[in-house]
Each structure stands twice: as C-alpha cells, then as structure tokens.
Task: inverse folding
C-alpha cells in the first residue's frame, strides 16, 4: 500500500483527500488488509464461491408495467435540471 | 510482410421486454426524456431491484438456439464506475456466473459455412443517455434507457476478416430477430457492438495486443472500422512500434479510429457480487417450457426446405438463416408454385443486391408480396429472366410494384409468334454473310443470331420461341 494506490482509490471513489491524511490512511488500510488476509488461511478446496450469505434464491417478477411518469418530481430533486433533463457539468469525451 | 487478423465481437442486444431488467418502468423507445424512470432506476435509497423473468426467458431462448450451456444458477455482480448517465455509480451485470455460456453459431462468407464459438451471453442493465450538444456548457441526462435489459454476447476471438465479422454480426442479428427477443432496430441502438482487433504474424503462437473499437452500430461501419484499424496496426508494427492496449472510437465521418481514454484513467471496475440480489435459479422444467414455445429455428427450417421443397442443403441454409428471407421464400414458393425458382432468385440476385449495399432484407425496399409477384411473372413467362433482373433493380431503387414497373417500362415479354418471326426474319436478311457461314457449318454463330434478335426486341422476346424460330429459318 503506497500513496499512489491510495490516491488512485480515492480518485475512483470520487473522494478528495487532504494530503496530510494520506499517511494515516496508508497504515489504516494496511491494517484492514492484514485483518482480512486471515481469510486466506482457510482451506477452500472443494468449496463453491459464495455469492450471497443468505440461503435463499431470487424471486423473479413478471414483465408487467407498474411504474408511472414521475419526471417533475425527480427533476425537482436534482441540483440542476431543465423541464426535460437532469443537467450536469459538461462531460467532454 | 503478411499479417493475420484476429477479431472478437461483444454484441449488446437490447431485449424486447415491456419493462426494465429490475423495475416495472417501460422500455418504450422515443418517449419524452425522463418519463420512464422508476425509483429503482434512479438508485434512490431504500429500493431493491427485482429481476424480470421475461429477460431471463429471452436470454435462455438465445442460449438454447446456440447450443449453449444454460447455467441453472447464475448471479449478478456490481461493476463500479462514475458517469452521469449511470445514477447508481455502478452497473448491475453478470461477471462470474452468466446465464448462458459456451455456445456456437454458424456464419456464411461466400456461401461457405464457419462455426464461431460464443464464450458467454450475460444479462446486464443499460445506462441512460447523455446529450452533450443541446445545452450551453452542460450535459443533459435522460434516464429512460437506464435499466433496459441487455444481453451481451461475447464471441471467441475466432473471426479472421472484416467479412467474417459482418457475417457474424448479421447471424446474431438474424437469430435474435428470429427468436423475437430483440426488435433488431439498429438505428435505435437495439444492437450495438464493440470489436476487439489484433494482428500477428502467421508463425506467432500468441495473439497480438488488441485494440477495442467501441459502440459500432451498423454493418458497414464494422467492416470499415476493422479495415482501418488493421491498417493502422500494420503500419505501427512495420515501423517497429508497439500496439497499446486501449479503447478506440471509430469516427465514421472521418473514417478513422482514435484513442478514447488515456492510460491514466485506466479502468478499474472493482467487481464484486451484487449484494442487493440473490442467486437466480432456473430449473429444467422452466427451460423445457421455453424450448417448447420457441419459434421454428433455422436448423429445423433447413431440413423442412430440403424435404418439402427439394432445395440443396447449402441453399436451404442461406435462406433459412434469415427470418425475413425465409418468409419471402415461403410466400413466393406457395404463390408461384415454383420453389426452385424463388430460391434461385433469392440466393442469386437478391443476395447480390443485399451484399452490394450491405443492408438487411428488412431495411430494403423489396416487400414480400412484391417478390412473390416477381417470381410469378417470371414463372408465367410474362417477363424473361433478363428483364426480371432489370425489374428487381427498379424495385430495389423505388419499391414500386412489379406490375407497375412492367407496364410503365413496357417490359412485357413478346410471346406473339408472328412478331418474333418478323424480328427473326429481319435479323436473318440483315446478316447474309453470317447466315452463309452458319449454314457452312459454323454452329457457334447461332448465339450471334439469338443475340441480335434480343437486341432488336430490347430483350423482350421469349428466348425459347426465338430459338425455335431461328432454328427453322436457318436450317
């Protein structure tokens, strides 16, 4: 774990990072990783990967329409919008 | 230096369900922005996704039709990235255990068959749409499409030319429209594809570094984008430079590909099992029921065409692979009572026109009934084969009906034996030297006389009658 990794993770998560906190974060994250690393001691031979801790399976729904137009309500929650669209700072490709 | 091209395709097929993959909002195309959005699509706190059974049914149909493994247990994963048209900050997709794996599909290039293996086909949700050019300095986001079910079909890198890539894309297009799991409407984005391209020398055992071409949505662009990309890679390697593994955007206006993302922002999607969804279990009874309700597949059609209509296997395959073409064939075969003739015209002339313009039958102006009419007119000898070709080309351009073209262009075949005799007489008396030579034993000249008569009659004389009359006159 180094500074660069921490800042990459912060960037991917869209978190801003104050510089002086970087070192503290490195040691925190290392401790967490070390703790989780204990899992590698478990013998997982012949054990299927677990996709959910609940011993249940999903219920599927029928393809029935059950939603309505809530455009104005949703748009009014957004920081910026016009009568049709959510507006965000220009995303340039 | 010679290079081998290796291509793999990832095709996103929009499944034609009424509602979204995880919410009950409509998937209707073309509605006003943001009017088909549910709490779930917005990713508001406290909501949970519930999978749409019909999306699974459609994915399973695809799996059955491609001899794939249907995984009785599949589950969803989270793919994390930030983009304004992805409200949750992640896409729900199937990474580790897709519903469909290990299938195959046949493609045809120059009427030759090749099997392309399908690695996997998984369900995922589509993102919304960003509009960059409508609002001053801002990007508008329309979330109507967010959550629409997609089936992403991934091929093995077994495609070795632009022609094969187009044929593969067409084969998938034909199959999903056959199965009625996708409307196949390319201009509305119902099918889009990413193309992975790499080149290597024939003696190399490992594949070269690949570039990924994003979001191509027409047959012609697939062909052009691959050609362009292969040339770019050859130039680089022959200059001794290296290919960078990256995503490139194909610009159809400039006919070039350019790099889309800098290395700095290298993708790291941090996949993990989707905690909001439980594993999906499909039992064999459900699969059997879907199987029983599937439309007749190309394979079954092929054997029926061979048995009932006496077609060659190769011909039957070409016709049966396309839902539109098989409909056209069956209608024309029944109405003209001449299936062989209908098949010959579809495989020959119609196919040639399709390839020339790189379009699908459904996109062309040739309608089922009009094709039937054309075959009937050839069969009852109203027009000759040669004229019929002209008529077909006219239909291709204008979409006018066969009979109106025949009438307005005065193309009815001359079967009036008096008129034919008159023309033949004229040709014989106009060419005394050739007549003498023919009578002296130069049999090959017979074709010359037929040609002259056809020219005189502007191609409208019935060749059979012409042959008979000329034989009599020249003997």
Result:
């Amino acid at each position: 774990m180094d500074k660069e990794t921490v800042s990459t993770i912060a960037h991917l998560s869209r978190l801003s990072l104050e510089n002086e906190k970087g070192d503290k974060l490195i040691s925190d994250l290392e401790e967490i990783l070390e703790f989780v690393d204990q899992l590698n001691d478990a013998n997982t031979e012949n054990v299927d990967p677990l996709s959910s801790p609940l011993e249940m399976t999903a219920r599927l729904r029928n393809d029935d329409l059950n939603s309505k137009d809530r455009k104005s309500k949703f748009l009014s929650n957004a920081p910026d919008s016009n009568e049709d669209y959510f507006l965000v700072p220009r995303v340039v490709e | 230096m010679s290079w081998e091209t290796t291509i793999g395709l990832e095709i996103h097929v929009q499944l034609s369900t009424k509602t979204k993959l995880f919410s009950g909002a409509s998937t209707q195309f073309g509605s006003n922005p943001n009017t088909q959005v549910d709490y779930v699509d917005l990713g508001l706190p406290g909501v949970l996704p519930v999978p749409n059974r019909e999306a699974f049914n459609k994915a399973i149909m695809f799996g059955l039709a491609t001899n794939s493994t249907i995984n009785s247990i599949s589950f969803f994963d989270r793919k994390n990235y930030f983009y304004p048209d992805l409200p949750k900050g992640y896409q729900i997709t199937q990474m580790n255990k897709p519903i469909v794996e290990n299938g195959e599909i046949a493609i045809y290039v120059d009427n030759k068959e090749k099997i392309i293996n399908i690695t996997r086909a998984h369900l995922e949700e589509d993102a919304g749409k960003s509009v960059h050019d409508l609002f001053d300095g801002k990007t508008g986001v329309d979330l109507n499409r967010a959550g629409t079910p997609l089936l992403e079909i991934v091929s093995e890198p077994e495609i070795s030319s632009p022609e094969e890539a187009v044929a593969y894309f067409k084969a998938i297009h034909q199959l999903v429209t056959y199965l009625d799991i996708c409307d196949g409407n390319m201009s509305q984005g119902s099918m889009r594809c990413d193309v992975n391209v790499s080149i290597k020398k024939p003696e190399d055992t490992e594949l070269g570094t690949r570039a990924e071409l994003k979001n191509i949505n027409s047959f012609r662009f697939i062909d052009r984008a691959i050609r362009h990309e292969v040339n770019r890679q050859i130039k680089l390697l022959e200059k001794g430079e290296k290919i960078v593994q990256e995503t490139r955007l194909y610009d159809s206006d400039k006919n070039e590909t350019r790099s889309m993302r800098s290395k700095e922002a290298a993708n790291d999607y941090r996949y993990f099992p989707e905690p909001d969804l439980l594993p999906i279990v499909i039992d064999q009874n459900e699969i059997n029921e879907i199987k029983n309700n599937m439309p007749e597949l190309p394979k079954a059609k092929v054997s029926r065409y061979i048995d009932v209509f006496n077609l060659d296997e190769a011909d039957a395959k070409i016709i049966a692979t396309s839902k539109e073409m098989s409909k056209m064939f069956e209608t024309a075969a029944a109405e003209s009572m001449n299936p062989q003739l209908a098949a010959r015209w579809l495989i020959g002339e119609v196919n040639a026109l399709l390839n020339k313009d790189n379009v699908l039958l459904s996109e062309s102006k040739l309608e089922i009934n009009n094709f039937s009419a054309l075959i009937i007119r050839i069969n009852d000898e109203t027009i000759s084969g040669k004229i019929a070709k002209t008529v077909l080309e006219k239909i291709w351009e204008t979409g006018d009906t066969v009979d109106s073209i025949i009438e307005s262009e005065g193309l009815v075949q001359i079967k009036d034996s008096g008129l034919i005799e008159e023309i033949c007489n004229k040709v014989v008396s106009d060419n005394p030297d050739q007549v003498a030579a023919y009578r002296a034993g130069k049999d090959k000249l017979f074709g010359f006389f037929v040609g002259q008569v056809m020219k005189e009659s502007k191609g409208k004389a019935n060749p059979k009658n012409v042959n008979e009359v000329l034989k009599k006159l020249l003997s």
Summary: The CA atoms of residues 41 and 147 of chain B lie 6 Å apart. The mean pLDDT of chain B is 89. Chain B has 16 helices and 15 strands. The radius of gyration of chain B is 28 Å.
